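Expect chain and fold; thus:
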Amino acid sequence: MKTMTCRQLGGACDREFHAETFEGIAEQSKQHGIDMFQRQDAAHLDAMQTMRELMKDPAKMGEWFESKRREFDALPDSED
């Protein structure tokens, strides 16, 4: 089990996500983003705008995604 925070994934807070795979972390982050969007959390909305800008360039988005995957892979296993 590994742990990443919302902030590590480009978000706006220190909420922790725990999963065995990067895909699991990404899904939790996505759900958290949906919740924050529904709440209209200003800090998260700003972070989402930054991500939308990144997504305009598929190559840059792919590089970002792979860098986060490598960061996940390099993390030690947690005891959660």
Summary: The chain has three helices and two strands. The CA atoms of residues 2 and 32 lie 17 Å apart.
